[in-house]
Amino acid sequence: MIGTGSTFKSAQPADATTVQDVGIKPGVQDVGIKAVAKALNLSVSTVSRALNGVYGVNAATRKLVEETAKSMGYVPHLGAKQLVGKSSNLIGVFIPQFEFEASDGFVGMFSPLQNALQSYGKDALFFSIPFSNYQNQRLTECITSRSLEGCIIFPPFSEAHPIIQEVLRLQVPCVNFEDVIGPRCSSVISDDREGGRLAGRRLLEGGHRIIGYMNGPPGIRICKERYAGFCEALSEFGIEHDSSLVVIGDFSGASGAKSAIELRHRHPEMTALFCANDLMAMGAIMEFARAGILVPEEVSIVGYDGDTFSAYTSPPLTTISHARDEISSRAVQMLMEIIKGNSGTKHSVPPQLKERQSVARWRTE
């Protein structure tokens, strides 16, 4: 299912006169194909053929050109590359590869994305990209080696991540799920603030007033939005959330277990806990069970993301679920609009409360 592109060449043959000026646009990247040719004392046409996989260049020269171009920071100008041949009808879907425990809820979007793309006559190629140790120009290599027409980039690749910076620099048609907008880059997001409100209101309507909040890593957009929405829901009931009821996790189940029990010891009067993702909520349920704390009789728990496996905790987890099918179809629609020449836009899709058995009405004395 996961595809990777590892060579740095065009999928279509190209003559030198077509791609002599394939270097990145002035002002964006200084190194172009002419600079590589000058550095190696080769003709521009020879370097062009070497970089584009065209016949007539021996293996040693081709390898030297590729290595030199990469070391100099050469990036092909994708607009010129598209003049080489016909459309590939291929869209790259870039998903994060983590070195730590993380939710794989985005897998549920693969099928709806593929179905939506096929309705436009396109197909998806899936690329697994290391999140922490990103290889410079990896996105460019994937695009050029497969002649991709556009990209869909999954969370948590945010604007600060090199892969997003690269796609904005290249101006290849792109849709992301992290609120990043550019001339050829659109964003479709799940409304995390509304999701926070939904969770807060559900617990407040169940009679809970002392509610803990388990956040993810500081500084992440979705964490800020989910907590802001949660606090807004409390304010509707005239409650200002006590900052001592906030605990920080790292989105893993292990951090959820550790943080939940620490918060319970700090605030034994706490009757409910809202967690910023499902893995932490599941870790909290597991740790409470070990400690003999009943869920939901003693502590109600709400998660976030609507991951499939959250239905199989004990008790099954009440969670805020992303509208994955709608987000997928909207992302593909927005990508097609960019490919046709429209500018980047932003759209948000509201999540839904998925009611299960981890929340109970709090008994009042």
Automatic annotation (TrEMBL):
InterPro entries: HTH_LacI, LacI/GalR-like_sensor, Lambda_DNA-bd_dom_sf, Peripla_BP_I. The keyword Transcription regulation applies. Coiled coil: none annotated. Residues 342-365 are annotated as: Disordered. SMART domains: HTH_LACI. GO terms for molecular function: DNA binding. Residues 353-365 have a biased composition (Basic and acidic residues). SUPFAM superfamilies: lambda repressor-like DNA-binding domains, Periplasmic binding protein-like I. It comes from the Bacteria. Keywords: DNA-binding, Transcription, Transcription regulation. Pfam families: LacI (PF00356), Peripla_BP_3 (PF13377). Residues 31-85 form the HTH lacI-type domain. This is LacI family DNA-binding transcriptional regulator. It comes from Cohnella silvisoli.
